[in-house]
Structure formats: structure tokens, C-alpha cells
């Protein structure tokens, strides 16, 4: 890990850590420690580094799962899925995320020194200190969670291990040789930082006095708004921290980790339910949450718990993903596996017995299918897309590394109103990063509540059945939902919840980690479906997955275990 700290800005800020004694550096307007620890703008810059590297919906790690393939031969996730995953080559590694942790730890040291005056008003100054410390603790917890999600696992000893937890800034020549905590020890360390942050952060940043938390009752509202007003509403808040706690608790409780032990399912359900009840519970499910990213009109949708700032007009993602006939590169191709996970419109699984017609495969299907995936005959990006015979450059395998390999193109996450013109010009649209949606929180609640007591277990006034019913009704499943009524056991509801999570959160970076935490096989071959002119033909193995049996748990980077003797590698790597 020592190599990480050498590359962060702090090395140049605190140049004395690495400067040679024999050299006298000239004044190059570098910011020294005294300056950073006393000037508010520079100190806050350390905190803002904690907002770098937040994981958004544009990762496209699904191409390493049964949900999609990438048609670019050099794509890292593709190479990993085809068998190249090792401790030396791991595109899903997050070990470098510790870099942000050290920024945050330095910031916490700076503000604890008490030499920064955020505002001349004593009350406002205290509020700034409180909020920024809360932000730093919450972000430190989140970045540790990112590393835990990617690198927790059974060590060579057979013990379920977490990660090292860093709560102090370490100088470049300091001791980074820290052992991994137990898995639950790491979870509890993250939870503690989240809980400490909750004691310091407002639930929401707002201009409305009615939104102010009771513990600020004695604070002048004019002063409160200077520190916690709506101008900060993209920063981490108490509401976001609670959602992140629910996500962490569900991860910890999952079969590959604590498998329901020690109350983490209860924590996930109760914490998620508490937040969901602030928006009205089931009635608060955003009606337009299926397509949360299709036009400028839904940018401030009530679907968002946490998002990034809105960018200017751009077309980069569409240029990568649109089909070739509308001047895209068709990079990510959803699989037939995923297409068949969408039920019939009546809610029953897509089987012949339930009305599925293999030669008219997209008729009478869950409406989400047409919203998320470009199927044969779809209108998209300014043209009609045919992936079978007669489809031209959109036809399956027509142009290597551009045309689909599965018979499908990606629609979800893309702005359908972007245009990529034949003359090379583009009509771009605004995009933004999404870090947490209410739909994910509803699904966290449903999964945890079902594991506690089955489909109808009441937690915070809701049940898994209530949540899944509302999500499927919003999706356009025929009501009453006859298939949902047949679900009576925890096991059958578990499968339905997992499938709904697969559909609702598709292409948002979840499936790659869900398969691992559930202990589900990683080696289901990617399938395709192709109109050969006479019939639709199934392609059973477009891409054969080749994960080692121990790949449920990802490796610690080999370079780190070689340098640091205290770091125990996960089994098999």
C-alpha cells in the first residue's frame, strides 16, 4: 500500500515527508502543512477528495456476469470472465480506494487541531466543524466498504476475513503493514464510522425550516442555512448514511458471508424501512422510477437518494453503446439469459407453459424488457434496429467488435434523445452519476425482511410481498398479480426478489457483486438469440465463463501481499 500514498497530492502538500535532506527546494507556490491546516478552502480540498471515486451506474461490470457480454476484446471485465482473473490481473480490484481514506484521515487530523476558522461567527463555525467531520467519517466508511465488497473472503487459514481499517493518516515512510480484521470486525468498524457520522450530519440539506432535525432546534435558522442549506444537497447526508448502512448490513448478512447470523438482516430491514417510511413507505415508490434517466425532465426525480452533479451535453456513453446503424459501437450486449429473466406481462415466468412463444419472443412480456434492452425490431437512437437476417450492420456478428454478439443491444442508462449523426457531429444530452436509488433501498428491505420471516413478515409496517407487489405493479405487470399470489414460502420469495433485483437494477453495477454475496454460480454461459430469417435460434454459449471455484472471493493484489507480511491472501490466489 505504500505505493499508493506516494501518488496522492498529500505527498506534494507535505513535501517534507519525502524530500531529500541535501536539497533545498525553491519556492514553487506549494502548499505546506501549516497553510493547509489553517486555510479553510485548502483544508476542505482534502475532504472533497473523499468524493472522488464514488461508484456510479456507468461501471458496466455486468459484462463479467450472465447478464451481458462486451464485444471489445480488450475489455478488462471480459478478460476476467474468460479466465484471466488472478491476483496480478483484477479489473474489479478496489484496493487503490484506500488512497481516498488517507486524504480523509489527514482532513480529520487537520480539523481536530482546531486551527481553522470556517466562519467568524462562533455558532456557524461550530456547525461547519460538525458537518464536515461527519462527512469525512461517512466517506471514510464508504470507501472502506468499497474495498471490503471487493476483497473480503476466506483467507488461507480458512477464516472469513475483512480488510485493514485505517483511522489515521500514515506518513509515506510509515507502517502500512497492517493485518486484515475479521470480516465482522471490518463490518463493525465501518458501521461505527457511519454511526458517528449520523451524530454529526443533518438528515437532509434544505432551505425549509420544517426540514430541520429536532437536535438543531436551538440553532438560529439563518445560521443553520449557511452550513446545512440546500446548496450542499449533493453532499453526503444522514439520509444517505442510513441507506448505506442498510446496504452494508445486507451485504454482511448474505450467504457468502455471515449467512443471516448476528442480526444483520434485522439491521438492514429496520434501517431501510425507517428511511422508506420518511417518504410514505410503499406509497412513496417513485411512479417514474423505472426509467429514471431518459430526459432532462426527470433529472431531479424523487427516485434519487444520492446523485452527482448534472453535466453538460454529451454523447460519450451513447457513442459506445448505440447500435452501429445509428453510429454507435454496440459495446455492451445484453444476454438472452437476462431477456428470459423478464416475465410475461401477466407476471408468470417466460415459459411456453405460461404463454411464451419462442418465435414471437417479445410479445406480451414485462414492459421493462422494452425499456431496458434493444430487441430485434426495436426503434432506438433514430432508427429501427434489426439484429437478424436483413439487419445490415446491426445484424449479429456483422462487424466484429461493433455488431451485437448476442442479438441484443443496451438501452438502459442511455439517453434515447441523443443523436450521433452521419457527418460525425452529435446532439448530446445531459447526464449525471447515480450513487443510490430508492428502488435499491426497497429491494434491500424486501430481501432482508423475507430472510427474517418470509414473504409476509412485517417490518416497519411493510413486508417483502408489499414491496415486490408495488414494484411489479409499477413495472406494468397485470393486476391483480396472480403469480405473486402463488408465492408462499421464504425460498420462492427469495428467488422472486433476486429476479426483481436483477431486472430493476440491471446495468447499474450490482449483479457482479450480488452473484458473489449470494454464492450463486459465476459460470453460467452467456446466451444469445438470433432471427435466422425463418426462425429464432438460441445461441447457448456466446461466451463461456471461466471463473475458478474460489472466485466468489476476489484476491488481494499480489503486489500488496508481497510487500506486507501481515496481509493474508484469500484462498486459491
UniProtKB/TrEMBL annotation:
Its main location: membrane. It comes from the Bacteria. GO terms for cellular component: cell outer membrane. It is found in: Cell outer membrane. Gene3D superfamilies: 1.25.40.390. Signal peptide: none annotated. InterPro entries: SusD-like_N, SusD_RagB_dom, TPR-like_helical_dom_sf. Residues 303-573 form the RagB/SusD domain. PROSITE patterns: PROKAR_LIPOPROTEIN. Keywords: Cell outer membrane, Membrane, Signal. Residues 68-207 form the SusD-like N-terminal domain. The keyword Signal applies. Belongs to the SusD family. This is Putative outer membrane starch-binding protein.
